[in-house]
Design goal:
327 residues, four-stranded antiparallel beta sheet, single chain, 10% strand
Length: 327
Amino acid sequence: MKLFPIAPETPGVRAGEEPSKSRWRRAIGEPLLHFLVVGGFLFGVYHLLTPPQGEGKANTNQIVLTKDDVRQLAISWLAQGRSSPTTEQVRGLVDQKVNQEILFREAVALGLDRDDEVVKRRLAQKMDFLATDVASLQEPTDAELKAWFDKNSATFALPAHATFRHLYFSTDRHGKETKEVAAAALPLVEGKSPDSSEVAAIGDPFMFQNHYGDATPDQMSKEFGPEFSNELFQLTPGKWVGPVKSGYGWHLVWIDSIEPGRIPIYAEVMPNVKAGWIDDKYREIKTTALEEMRSRYSVIVPPIETADFQDLQVPPGFNLGLEVSAQ
């Protein structure tokens, strides 16, 4: 009895031998082959993108000054009020710049830039400047400036102005009776011109002026004291009044004129309004930028309300590396 094979044999292939196509198909499906191919690809990309170790090290240790850098050094020299630098002086400036760069890189390599409050403050100032994109400000329209002025008109208030003369009575000379001496002199000058020789003979010599023109409350407060300044701008022009107290003694005062403070109209202060608008927008941009940066951080601060700062003392020779301001 003759037996037939269950499946026909492939021509040219021996019994029990796997076809070549099947071998290739199985080889391509091997995970190890996939790993080798992907690894070789990544190695090639890394080799192309990463410079040789010697080249990177050479660039790190290379200091390059361009022609513009040298020109800036020369300009800095001129900005100090000096004459044009000689060739030797420029070489000296270049050497200083190179030494500064070398010391900077060596300091960074040693980590001296870390945990240094002065460096932190300087970098924070630079970042604060860069974060404020003033260039993004568009030129304001006249309508925008007027609207901004209406909301901030008090900022541009013009102070009161007073023009006056005074007679001085010194507490050093008259002691506790100085006010009474000044009051007794008032009837002697009432009805008389402040320019008369009779009036000029009354009172004591004053170390500053006897006549003030267009004086503001702030100016008078600094020179005579707040009490004198406050009363001065309440006086009636055209007659002698007093006594008025100051930080120096007592005074009889003649008011030539008083111009009350007022809010100017937009046209009077338009250039200042534009400058104020720009400053206001600058602060808005700065605040927005800082808020965006701060949103990327988690800030952890100990409870300040329960802290005790009453027994703090500044050690001798303490160097404050951080400017502190309460806003």
